[in-house]
Automatic annotation (TrEMBL):
Record's keyword terms, sorted: DNA-binding, Phosphoprotein, Transcription, Transcription regulation
Protein name per its UniProtKB record: Response regulator
PANTHER family: TRANSCRIPTIONAL REGULATORY PROTEIN NARL-RELATED, TWO-COMPONENT RESPONSE REGULATOR
SUPFAM superfamilies reported in the protein's UniProt record: C-terminal effector domain of the bipartite response regulators, CheY-like
Limits of the Response regulatory domain: 4-122
4-aspartylphosphate sites (modified residues): 55
HTH luxR-type domain boundaries: 151-216
Pfam families for the chain: GerE (PF00196), Response_reg (PF00072)
Amino acid sequence: MAIRVLLVDDQPLLRTGFRMILEAEQDIAVVGEAGDGLQALDQVRALQPDVVLMDIRMPRMDGVEATRQITGPGRDGPAKVLVLTTFDLDEYVVEALRAGASGFLLKDAPANELVQAIRVVAAGEAMLAPSITRRLLDKYATHLPSGDEPLPDTLHTLTDREVEVLKLVARGLSNAEIAADLFVSETTVKTHVGHVLTKLGLRDRVQAAVYAYESGLVRPGAQ
């Protein structure tokens, strides 16, 4: 079955460009468009898309709030949100990731990256390199806790090895790199990451990276 995509952007020309790129793919179908967050919510309810390609800065309701309402607690719909941002990494992307977005994509990304991003997010994975997550979080460290706060109780549900894996995820390492660093198999790393997500109630490794920073487990700029 084709991946059902909803395009959300307040610039009609951008929506038209995205539609032309995506509709050229046999496994992707653009089922609707919206020019702001409120329209996006209506379209999500009516069309039940698999992926919402979401701009951040829009009139009436921005992409952060729309993302929160689409993917927040208690939502059981299939829609995953892929946030669009400008080249300089919009500070609101951090809020969108907190709100439940599965990743972000630069607006000037090549067509093949857009298509791949849609497929990855539809498959339930996080769409961004962990190193980009870290660069984003480091850049907007002032929006995160200072690190002086006590670690949250939820961290104590993790084993020592799971904490170690979470730190490496937040540092931007892939599963293969974590496996090499810890001298274990990639399968073992995937298992640990899965346990971390389940215990902390997180959707994906993007949210795990955000959590590691917000909890103070990882300090911005630390190696």
